[in-house]
Amino acid sequence: MKTDIRNKEDIKVLVDAFYHKIQTDETIGYLFTKIAVVNWEKHLPIMYDFWDNILFHTGNFDGNPMMKHRLLNDKSTLSETHFLHWTQLWRKTVDDLFEGEKADEVKIRAKNIAKAMMNKVII
């Protein structure tokens, strides 16, 4: 039986599972592995803090995701397809692992974040 997202440890499980899928994803994986060349040891803890702050208002995230995505777009043009696929993959990962109020919230928040980024990054 699935549980809801309850704490940062659950967020780590979610983020790790999501980025594991991302690394081999045919649609957007190359953005992470070949264009941004993500340092996963550095990136994952940032994502843990980002989503922990989004769901639990911890205030432990200090970053500028919009700027990071603009820089990525400068290297390789991002499209609506990229953002929609990211959102679908995130939603599926959440649904595979969790259910409940926070699980629903993190899907909605991700969709809204992706939409905002898409509107501000794709020019």
Short description:
InterPro entries: Globin-like_sf, Globin/Proto. The protein is an all-alpha fold and 123 residues long. 72% of the residues lie in helices and 0% in strands.
Please tell me about this protein's structure:
By secondary structure, the chain is mainly α. The chain has a single domain (8-119), classed as Globins (Globin-like, Orthogonal Bundle), CATH 1.10.490.10. The protein has six helices and no strands. Helix 5 packs antiparallel against helix 6. The radius of gyration is 14 Å and the shape is globular. 23% of the residues are buried. This is Hemoglobin. InterPro entries: Globin-like_sf, Globin/Proto. GO terms for molecular function: heme binding; oxygen binding.
CATH architecture: Orthogonal Bundle
The stretches of 5 or more residues where confidence is low (pLDDT under 50) are none
> Fraction of residues in helices?
over 70%
- Mean pLDDT comes to 96
Instruction: Assess the beta-strand content as a share of residues.
Output: under 5%
What would you call the structural class? mainly alpha
Compute the CA-based radius of gyration.
Answer: 14 Å
CATH homology superfamily name:
Globins
Q: In whole angstroms, how far apart are the ends?
A: 43 Å
Shape call: globular
